[in-house]
Amino acid sequence: MASKGSISVNTENIFPIIKKFLYSDHDIFLRELVANAVDATQKLQKLASMGEFNGELGDLTIQVDVDKEAKTISITDRGLGMTEEEVEKYINQVAFSGATEFVEKFKDVDTSTIIGKFGLGFYSAFMVADNVDVITKSFKDEPAVKWECDGSTTYEITPSDKTERGTTIVLHVNEDSEEFVDEQRLRQILDRYSKFMPIPIQVGVDKRTEKEGEGDDAKDVEIVEPHIINKNEPLWTKDPKTLTDEDYLNFYKELYPMSEEPLFWIHLNVDYPFELTGILYFPKVSEDITPHKDKIQLYSRQVFITDNVEEIMPEFLRLMHGVIDSPDIPLNVSRSYLQSDANVKKISSYVTRKVSDRLSSLFKNDRENYEKKWESIGLFVKYGMMTDDKFFDKAKKFCLFENIDGKKFTLEEYKEHIASNQVDKDGKSVFLYASDQGTQDTYIQAAKKKGYDVLKMDTMIDNHFVSNTEHKFENVTMKRIDSDTVNNLIETDEKNESVLTEDETKNLVDIFKRALNNDKLEPKVEAMTADELPVMITKPEFMRRMEEMSAMQGGMGGMFGGFPGGDTVTINGNSELVGRILKEENTDAQDKLVKHAYDLAKLSQGNLKGADLTAFINRSLDII
């Protein structure tokens, strides 16, 4: 026989879970209780603005007090307060949110500043307290009450002699949590979570001594001032039109006191189809981008949530610094981390678009300044182009390529710049680049003699950006300057004539194999110009990229073990020294010249070291 019924949740089972596992960090209890106090205060302000409360608001500062001897923490507000009926409703019914009901009741007016959502924040108090008291008096003309609970599912409500409107929550801290019965510790927690909350929060006082009077009559006077956690109104809540560059820079210093000044910033402000405000800064980024991550702080109605914004910010934008504040970002029940949904994707797309629009505007309106900052901007742009296709589509118009002479070009500008000399037989533009100008100078100079332009691609991200550029840009191929001999970097139908016969070429290869005595080397002869090096060592572009990928991924299980290092040894058949080697009849002298020519090639790459370098020096002295 079928039956129907309602599932019952036993509070004796769920209450310990709420107390012990609702929040990953126990210090969040203070954020939740202060947020509730801010909530109650803002509700009263809202009612006053609507004419439903006609009394004096007075000083609305929230007080956080510590009593070390009694081992208590008290949070006091002068907000709405509660009647006995409301205490029964909001405190005793787990997960019944007063904020939710308030918003529903006044849905036709702006209640966007109300923080509470799940109605569970109050119970975070029991993570650190054995007993909790709630002493409250409503703004309505009703008696004050006191609610007491020892962490079990039983409670007691009694009359209270409280005369002022508002609520005081007293936490009788347990032994395991006595670290929190410390004023400095509480200041530290609130400075992290609550320094931008919209209602003043006081934790103790600050004392200092000042001189009063002049000369012999001067005396020390103690000045006592309340210690307010949240002195400044958050910059992101203000109208950008009213702010100056100095305002933005000062706010950045407040957030990141040890950082250099940012390059520029973006003020976010949208109210449809979701609500989002914030300020994102472009910092000066060094080669190591890792320390620059996790510098964006996420807030929900000015309450700090997390600095882990993986869900909402594309990876490349997590290099930025700043704050994002949105009540529309879905949070888990403890407001400790994000939950992914359609709104998160919309917000992510919006932020990406705003960043690309800002960069595009800077490029178009102040290209000179944009180019000066390209060293840092370029890391953002290239990273974004590799990881976000939508950003790529916009960024390709303001991504710059810098050559070794310091000139910068957009993609289309650079293709036009090299059109007369660096287009291969298949019609592809060949972008030659150097990753280390010092060790690759020999190859750079050879390319310059041919009239080629060489790009500078020497940042940590460029290894990956090179492949990405080839993949996404049509009719563009990229070759590192030392990936082949200068004649072969750009494939054309033109070939240099060799001065060697076929037999001389074969003989030359045999001489080099014997002299170098290295089975892994397979030298080849090529007709180059007479003034180039007698021997060049190159690594094919494809092989080098595969080896770099292998190194990044931990070797890929010896995938390249069968390749002899991938180096190509090319003998310049038209070199004068090579001609001498062929003509030399003494085998020892011939071998010495071969080794010297080979070592010159290694030296030009900065790869001649240790015993090989010593042998080269001694051999040079003998030759001289």
List descriptors.
ATP hydrolysis activity; 5-stranded mixed sheet; Heat Shock Protein 90; 21 strands; Chaperone protein HtpG; alpha+beta; ATP-binding; disordered N terminus; 624 residues; Rossmann fold; 4 domains; Ribosomal Protein S5, domain 2; 35% helix
Fraction in beta strands: 15-25%
Instruction: From the 3D structure, determine the CATH topology of the largest domain.
Output: Heat Shock Protein 90
Number of domains: 4
Helical region count?
19
Number of strands: 21
**pLDDT under 50 segments (min length 5)?**
1-11, 95-99, 109-119, 332-339, 555-564
* CATH classification class of the largest domain: Alpha Beta
What's the rounded overall pLDDT mean?
82
Q: Strands of the largest sheet, in order across it?
A: 5-4-3-6-2-1-7-8
Return the structural class.
alpha+beta
Q: Which descriptor suits the 3D outline?
A: elongated
Say what oligomer this is.
single chain
Q: How would the blueprint of this fold be written?
A:
Elements: H1 11-21, H2 28-49, E1 62-67, E2 72-77, H3 84-90, H4 98-105, E3 129-137, E4 145-149, E5 155-159, E6 166-173, H5 183-193, E7 201-212, E8 219-228, H6 245-255, E9 264-270, E10 276-282, E11 296-300, E12 303-306, E13 321-325, H7 342-365, H8 367-372, H9 374-387, H10 389-395, E14 401-402, E15 408-409, H11 411-417, E16 429-434, H12 441-449, E17 454-456, H13 462-472, E18 476-480, H14 486-489, H15 502-516, E19 524-526, E20 535-538, H16 541-552, E21 568-572, H17 576-583, H18 587-604, H19 610-623
Parallel strand pairs: 1-7, 11-13, 16-17, 16-18, 19-21
Antiparallel strand pairs: 1-2, 2-6, 3-4, 3-6, 4-5, 7-8, 9-10, 10-13, 11-12, 14-15, 20-21
Helix pairs in contact: 7-10, 9-10, 9-13, 15-18, 17-18, 18-19
InterPro entries: HATPase_C_sf, Heat_shock_protein_90_CS, HSP90_C, Hsp90_fam, Hsp90_N, Ribosomal_Su5_D2-typ_SF
Organism: Flammeovirga pectinis
Family: Belongs to the heat shock protein 90 family.
